Every structure is written in structure tokens, then in C-alpha cells.
Amino acid sequence: MMSASSLLQLALLIPLLAAAGVVLTGRHENLREGVSLAAGTLLLAAVGNLYPVVMAGQVIEVLWLEVLPGLTLAFRVEPLGLIFALVASSLWIVTTLYAIGYMRGHGEQNQTRFFAFFAISIAAVMGIAFAENLFTLFVFYELLTLCTYPLVTHAGTDKAREGGRLYLGILLGTSVAFFLVAIIATWLLTGTLSFQPGGVFTDDTPAGLLSLLLVLYVFGVGKAAIMPFHRWLPAAMVAPTPVSALLHAVAVVKAGVFVLLKVCLLIFGLETLREIPATQWLLYLAGASILLAAIVAMRQENLKKRLAYSTVSQLGYITLGALLATSAGVTGSAMHIVMHAFGKITLFFCAGAILVAAHKTEVGQLRGLGRQMPITMGAFLVASLCIIGIPPTGGTWSKWYLLLGTLEAGELWLMGLLMVSSLLSIAYLLPIPLRAFFSGVEATDAGSTGVAVREAPWPSLLALGITATGCVLLLLFPDIIYQLIKAGI
């Protein structure tokens, strides 16, 4: 039987080997895509087999390189990282399946490059998920930015290049100006960059200095899209829909909020975090980000942009849960990483399916579309309920624990804000599938009275069906995620 450390090594290397395999088989599309699907399956198996080992309390560590004394490229499996790795590895398979139907159906160019950089992105995600220290995390965090840039600019148009420049500018700018500075300061103050339960700072560290560091970390992790460093996310919607799914659910934004959660829990520690003066006004900032992004989402007529601003709002939930510095808040934050991943990836899958099958991109064009695309719009309805946070979907659990977290922290105004933002998400999401099914407008290309069912290619349809089903299953079987979270707090 393979050792746990070997499984960890495999989880880090499988996506890189997959990227090489995709390039080597690029001229044979069936073989190329088979390599991607096989690699995703092997990665999920490797990560899944780490679950019982972690729950048994065993420490799994791997050292790759010692750059300087005490500064290492090293990996360790801890519960929160395993959650992120499980989400990313499972959704890699589904997104690959979806991309096969989308890329072929939409006649996209440079498909080999797409699948190769997608695999490298997953390798970067595994590095972030299993990073033993801030140095390792920073290396893979930056690698994720660089290897997703060709995906954002995939179309090669002036608009795509402009979106890519904004993407790189904000993410690299915040990393160098804030995140890297915070990491260096942490090293100088503590002599370590390793993640530790309870945090790394001593009780005599000045509160003002801790406040400054927390601000640098929150603003430095630009992938978390906290306002005002959120504009890269809507700008990146010029990318193909599978890339949008990667950005919003599998890799980039989830990497951002995961890093913030890990820093709050394992660099500051919940007790220290509660005592830092800056925590309170950063909670205000997260609350404002939730509310303002939801209001902006309501005003977007383009479907992908509406979903993008929805993501900015929902990421604020995760940041807020981490900054509440309570057990329930952290539980809700970690659970929302999972629930939002399945809900939002389904919504983007549906948006891409609508583009491929019906050639529609605007919200106003979707009236009556449920007759033409009943499976797609049915999945859109389920995913919308998951983002809103109501049964029969798993989003119910994360929103519930976030509300409990506000009570636990005595922040009743934040509880009210979360309730208002949920009402806003109902307003900008739910009318789309309801009008699609119940509007009197017939959605046909020719404008005839008869509406033929015409869904997206079957791989895309299967993928969005799987993730929509996942939204429901997460309501019924949340315990696997919940037990991991409790083991990590």
C-alpha cells in the first residue's frame, strides 16, 4: 500500500505530468482529453486517500528544498488544506468534461494550450492547499496567477488582452506591495513562516503592528477580490466559460479566500485575531463588499458579469466568517468555500451551455428559454438556491453557520447585513430561471411558436448535471466536510 507521503507527492506531481501528457498528445484530441480526465481521476483518488490518514491524526509532511536555513519549500497535509484539495480535484474532472463539450461546440482555437495550462493551474492549487509555510504558499500563489493568465487571454482579442493586463496588474501588484511585505515582516518578527495551530505571534507583539500586518494580508491576497481590489474578476470574464468556472470555483478566487482563512487561523490564531483593533473595521469592509457587490450584480444585464459580481459578494461571506474569529464563523467560512464552489461552477456551466446552444449572453434574452433548455435552466435554479443558501441545497449549511458566527461574536448588525444580502441574491438570481420557465416569451432562434428542445453538447450537460446534483447532496451529506473543519480548528 502506498504511504501517505507518497500520496502527497503524487497529488503535487500528477497535474504537472498531465500537462506534459496533454502537450504530447495535442494532435489527437480524444487522447489529449482522455489524459486530462484520467489525471483528474488519479488526483482525486490520491487526495481522497489522504482523508482517513488526516482524520486519524497522522502528520504527513514532505520537504522539497531548503532555500535558506529555516526557509523551505515544504508541504504538509492539514484538514483545511485537504478540503480545498478535495474541492479542486473533484471539480477538475467535471470542468474538463464540461470543457470538452464547450470547446468543441464553440469551435475554440488553441485547445491543447487550454488543457495544458488548466493542468498547471491545478498543480499550483495543490501547492497552495498543502503548503507547510508562507514561503511555499507564496511561490505557488504567484505561479497560479502566471499560469492562469494565458487562460484569461485565450481569445487573443484586444479586449481579452486588456482584461489580462488588469488581471496581472492587480494580482501581482497586491502580492508584491502587500502580501510579500507581510510575509517578510512575519519572518522578521517570529523567525518562522510555518503554519501553526493558534498562530505564530507572541503575546507581547504590539497590537498596532498586528493590525498593520492583518491589513497587509487582507489586501495582499488580491485573489479574494475584497473591495476595492476586485476589478480583475469582472474584467477576466472575457475568457471562455470553462476558464470562468476555473477562476470562480476550482482555483483562483477559492485560493484567495482559502489563503485568508489559513492566515487568520494558523498565522494569527483566533484568540489573537479577536484582539486586533483592525479586525473590526476589516469586518466592516467585508460587509460593505458583500452588500455593494450584490447591488452592482443586480444592475448587470450580461449574465457572466452578473455572476462575477455575485462571486465578489459571496467571497465577502468567506472573508467575513474568517474575521469573525469564532468557531462557528470559521466553520461557515470553510463550508462556504465548498458550497459556493459547487453552486457557482454550475451557474457558469449553465451560462456557457446557453451561449453554445442558444447563442445568448444577456439576462433579458433568457425569457422562455426553459422550454428549449429545461435541463440547463433546471440546474441554474438549483445552483441559484445554493448561492442564496436555502434548501434543498448545501448552501443552507454555510449560511447557517455564518449567521451563528455573527451571533457568537455579538455582531448583530452583520447578521442583518447577511440577511439583506441573501434577499439581494434572490433578486438577482432567482428571476432568471423563473422567467425562463414561466415567461410567455417563446425562446426560439427563428421566432416560431414551436420550441424544440436543444441543449448543449452532452459532455457539458453531464457536467452541469453532476455539479447541480452535488449542490443537493451537500445538504444531505455535509458531515465529511464538517468533520474535517472541526479537526482543523
TrEMBL record:
GO CC terms in record: plasma membrane
Domain (NADH-Ubiquinone oxidoreductase (complex I) chain 5 N-terminal) ranges: 71-115
Principal localisation: membrane
Keyword entries, A-Z: Cell membrane, Membrane, Transmembrane, Transmembrane helix
Domain NADH:quinone oxidoreductase/Mrp antiporter transmembrane residue range list: 131-425
Location within or outside the cell: Cell membrane; Membrane
Transmembrane segments: 6-25, 37-60, 80-102, 114-131, 137-154, 166-189, 209-233, 245-269, 281-298, 307-325, 337-358, 379-400, 412-430, 461-485
Bilayer topology annotation: Multi-pass membrane protein
InterPro entries hit by this protein: CPA3_Na-H_Antiporter_D (IPR050586), ND/Mrp_TM (IPR001750), Proton_antipo_N (IPR001516)
Domain of life (superkingdom): Bacteria
UniProt record similarity statement: Belongs to the CPA3 antiporters (TC 2.A.63) subunit D family.
PANTHER family in the cross-refs: NA(+)_H(+) ANTIPORTER SUBUNIT D1, NADH DEHYDROGENASE
Protein name as annotated: Multisubunit sodium/proton antiporter, MrpD subunit
Species this chain originates from: Microbulbifer yueqingensis
Lineage, uppermost ranks: Bacteria, Pseudomonadati, Pseudomonadota, Gammaproteobacteria, Cellvibrionales
